[in-house]
Amino acid sequence: MQSAGGLDNPYNILDLDYPTLGFHCGLEVHHQVLTQRKLFCHCPAGVYSEKVDAEVLRHMRPTLSELGEYDPCALMEFKTKKEIVYLLNKESVCTYEMDDTPPFPINQEAVDIALEIAMLFDCQIVGEAHISRKQYLDGSIPTGFQRTTLVGVSGSIPFRDRKLGIIQLGLEEDSCREVSDLRHTIQFRTDRLGMPLIEVVTESEMRHPYEVAEAGNIISQILRSTGKVRRGIGSVRQDVNVSIEGGTRVEIKGVPRIPMFPRLVSIEAYRQKRLLDIRDMLKQRRITEKSLQYSVHELPKEQIHFRTEKLSEAHIAGLRIAAVKVMGIAGLLSTEVQPGRTFAHEISGRVRVIACLDEKPNLFYTDTDGEFALFPEERTSVRAITNARLDDAVIVLWGPDEDVTTAISETVARLREATVGVPPETRQARKGGWTDFERLLAGPNRMYPDTDSPPTTISPGRVTRIREHLPATPWDLRKRLLKTGMSAVLAEQLVMSPYFGLYWKIEEDGRIPANRVARVLVQEIRAAKRKGGNPEKIPEDAWRKLFEHLRKGELLWGAVPLLIQHRSRRPGADWMAIAAKQHLLPLDESEWNSMVDSVLKVLPLSRKKDARVHWLMGHLQRPPGRIPAKKVAELLAKKIEEQEL
Length: 645
Fold this sequence. Notes:
The protein is an alpha+beta fold. About 35% of the residues lie in helices and about 20% in strands.
């Protein structure tokens, strides 16, 4: 298998036959809602701080569902025996978040925004919003559950030549920010906790990795078009659900950027295909979930001397080292399941999360190659101690006694799952597009009603009032821009820009080339930000004045990038004053005529005509914006031609 690259494949997705694989993908998009206070208390939303006024220590335990059953994900989190430390700042957290006070009535401002967004996704609006509790024992929520409610179901949005189904739109609390996670201790900041969060869940109707990114962009555009969701790092997180024929749903959790989608989901499709290949290989070896045989052996320092640094240090520290011999799986552990990652990484991820053996590497094996392979003499000794045959594999684990016991249990569990195929999991997105185990996939048993919160009635009048003031959809706005002659690329960028409204005011002030205006409002402003400026502080009237100068010819387009960079550092300055100080004012025709004559005296005769014009134009436009580039280029070409005659 090779990865495709280049211009035709900008995301470097894997070369796979996605239709034949039966590739399916859906999205869960979580976006913070722009409100003054949190969802179930009166604490301010969006107030972040590194200051710590107090710490709270918690341990989590699972609770039974309404049907008297435990959620497997909750049980898995309980196995980790985590000590959870919450870092509190008194300006952004109260006793509600710590579960010491019942919830306040739900924030109705957030409900209205959720209803508006649900309508933009063409959802059927619920008559009553009922609050449910969704268990989270990973520590990200101090109560052990997240309060959530549905506001819309069964929606759709235009997508390519079809409709993309929206399963539901929910309103829920955001979780804490993770600070550190080391062994059995995890720390969180609580300033983000409880902020209102929209969740948009699509049908699994994307059939190619590129479609996933496209759908993500459309959803993002709809949410941002309201002007009522937060912007910036951490305000939006996406979960991607991937499956192939014969596999199962795997959730890639918390993907921060849409450009990551295609490579992530293509690698996950490949991973599932490889896991199905491993299942078939085990079937050929007549190894099933029930027939898998293994034995556990201790490896004390009196019995074996390790050269491998980690294992040698473990013996010195008095830690337990144990070997798990598994019959008939030789070669399995070093089988690739993701680019550059083997099946041993599948086990390693499970051991890291559940047994909390998180130092890398956290296991070794007796396969002859791969990242986790033992030295040859160690391999021989381990095989002798465990009486392993040539077709057996031995996995070596080390650490505190209880953690090693958990690691052995999880190793065997993951190998049993390999005989079935693809386990339903939640996985973490990693740099490079590969993923790692995060937790088992949660089931319906983690949801139950919240008896502390009454339902919210959504009256027909309320729905009508919100529907009458819905913003235009991004696809309608895009069509409107395209009618002005703007390119599709710039129209796409301007639709989501905060300067969209300003564009139409500039258009009303007088006709001006649409692409040039859009390029300034989108690309040049972004460039000024990258260089440390604050173009967002430039008043709207000042922007309109800039384009008036351009319309009248008092300034030239070539000077605009430098003008914006200078004014973004001094938002109150005047455009013409900046242009005069930086020598960016247009020259008279007589001046640029004489400039052309002077540069022609140093004309490099060895260059072709077009190359000479380009080279000389570069000299004439220093600094830029003083001469009309098109006219001067024509004049240069004409004079060069006259010289050659």
